[in-house]
């Protein structure tokens, strides 16, 4: 039996979202909407998702409810359209044309609900030569120039997990687009399609770099610029115990405090002398190798030197600042990031653990008044 979930809290309370199950940026975007209070119903395929972990650990499905619909069955599309008729937003992450072939494309959905915001999450977008091709985060950020920004100049580009493409360039841009379109739909009564392509979002993230490149303030190669590890006072350094400290002492006053606490003082080469950056980096690296990460953390604690320890995923929740803010929370035995951002009036929370495939069908059928969800077989 499904466990009843508490009513949505947060600024999106009362907003209904249909999420057509997938993996990666679509579910993460829907989780963010659910975290903000939306009533998100995830429509699962009968055979479940392709994620290689047990569904009860997939925190990107927290705060949601789940129903199971076979879209390839005779009456499957109609059951989804019943949900669409009562929804404000739909999110899908199929390749272009797939939703249309299944009978739940934008035109069909808007015929049932003209106010619907139809959010489409893809890597390549709905049009263009690569639109029908498969891909993953790494390929999307590669062609936009974003991947080429990251890493040492004498090594292959560093892979930033799937954070820059899937989640930053994909999920977050989809959510921004959906919320903007929802605002428009409520003002005009007319829904629309949001085409959120990871290539577009990942390219957009690098807007500042393109401006700096045009102005001559950014070299078109990695590891030689102010914010890509080329600057010796903006980077990471190994400590005596094989761990790392992160340094971001860009401004003069912060830099002065940094070199003073590091113990370099007047011995440090002039920070603006780019020709001596290599010498400065070696001096800084040598100092950091003299103490452990814990010791350096204590040295810089309470300062404005802009230095922090590089923590692992398991270490991060115990950081004093994050613990004080409740940046992480424990729910259902899983330590996970708490909802973000925060609101002064419409507070958010983790209301329920990861939705289990099909577990909420009866509850959703009742709450959304969609009795056909309970029909046996194809009836």
* Major sheet: arrangement of strands: 3-2-1-4-5-6
User: How many strands appear in the DSSP assignment?
Assistant: 11
| Element pattern in H and E | EHEEHEHHEHHEHHEEHHHEHEEH
* Helix-strand makeup class: alpha/beta
Ends distance: 23 Å
The Rg value, from CA coordinates, equals 24 Å
Mean pLDDT: 94
Q: How much strand content do the residues show? A: 5-15%
Largest β-sheet summary: 6 strands, parallel
Give the fraction of residues assigned to helices: 25-40%
Helical segment count:
13
Low-confidence stretches: none
Shape: elongated
Describe the model.
With 379 residues, the chain is α/β, with parallel strands linked by helices. 33% of the residues lie in helices and 14% in strands. It contains 13 helices and eleven strands. It has helices at residues 25-35, 76-85, 98-102, 106-112, 137-143, 163-188, 198-205, 207-214, 252-262, 277-288, 293-300, 320-325, 361-367, and strands at 16-20, 39-44, 64-68, 89-92, 117-122, 192-197, 234-238, 244-248, 307-309, 328-331, 334-337. A six-stranded parallel sheet has the order 3-2-1-4-5-6, sandwiched between helices. Helix 1 (25-35) packs across helix 6 (163-188) and helix 5 (137-143) packs across helix 6 (163-188). The two termini are 23 Å apart.
Which helices and strands occur, and which strands form pairs?
Layout: E1 16-20, H1 25-35, E2 39-44, E3 64-68, H2 76-85, E4 89-92, H3 98-102, H4 106-112, E5 117-122, H5 137-143, H6 163-188, E6 192-197, H7 198-205, H8 207-214, E7 234-238, E8 244-248, H9 252-262, H10 277-288, H11 293-300, E9 307-309, H12 320-325, E10 328-331, E11 334-337, H13 361-367
Parallel strand pairs: 1-2, 1-4, 2-3, 4-5, 5-6
Antiparallel strand pairs: 7-8, 8-9, 10-11
Helix pairs in contact: 1-6, 5-6, 5-7, 6-7
């Amino acid at each position: 039996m499904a466990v009843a979930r508490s009513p949505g809290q947060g600024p999106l309370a009362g907003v209904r979202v249909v999420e057509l199950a997938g993996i990666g940026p679509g579910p993460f975007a829907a989780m963010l909407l659910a975290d903000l209070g939306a009533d998100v119903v995830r429509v699962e395929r009968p055979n479940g998702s392709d994620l290689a972990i047990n569904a009860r650990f997939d925190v990107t499905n927290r705060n949601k409810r789940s129903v199971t619909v076979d879209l390839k069955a005779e009456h499957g599309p109609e059951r989804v359209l019943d949900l669409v008729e009562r929804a404000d937003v739909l999110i899908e992450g199929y390749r272009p044309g797939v939703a249309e072939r299944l009978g739940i494309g934008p035109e069909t959905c808007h015929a049932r609900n003209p106010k619907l915001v139809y959010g489409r999450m893809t890597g390549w977008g709905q049009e263009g030569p690569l639109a029908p091709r498969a891909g993953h985060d790494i390929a999307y950020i590669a062609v936009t120039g974003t991947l080429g920004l990251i890493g040492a100049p004498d090594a292959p580009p560093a892979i930033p997990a799937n954070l820059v493409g899937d989640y930053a360039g994909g999920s977050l841009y989809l959510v921004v687009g959906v919320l903007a379109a929802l605002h428009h739909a409520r003002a005009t009564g007319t829904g629309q399609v949001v085409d959120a392509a990871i290539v577009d979002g990942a390219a957009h993230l690098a807007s500042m770099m393109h401006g700096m490149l045009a102005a001559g303030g950014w070299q078109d190669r990695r590891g030689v610029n102010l914010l890509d590890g080329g600057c010796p006072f903006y980077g990471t350094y190994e400590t005596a115990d094989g761990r790392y400290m992160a340094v971001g002492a860009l401004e003069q006053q912060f830099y002065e405090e940094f070199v003073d606490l590091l113990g370099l003082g007047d011995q440090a080469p002039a920070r603006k002398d780019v020709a001596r950056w290599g010498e400065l980096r070696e001096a800084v690296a040598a100092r950091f190798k003299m103490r452990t990460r814990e010791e350096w953390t204590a040295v810089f604690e309470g300062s404005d030197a802009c230095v922090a320890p590089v923590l692992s995923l398991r270490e991060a929740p115990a950081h004093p600042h994050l613990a004080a803010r409740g940046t992480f929370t424990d729910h259902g035995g899983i330590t996970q990031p708490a909802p973000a951002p925060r609101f002064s009036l419409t507070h958010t929370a983790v209301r329920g653990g990861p939705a289990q495939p099909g577990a909420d069908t009866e509850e959703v059928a009742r709450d959304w008044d969609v009795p056909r969800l309970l029909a046996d077989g194809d009836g």
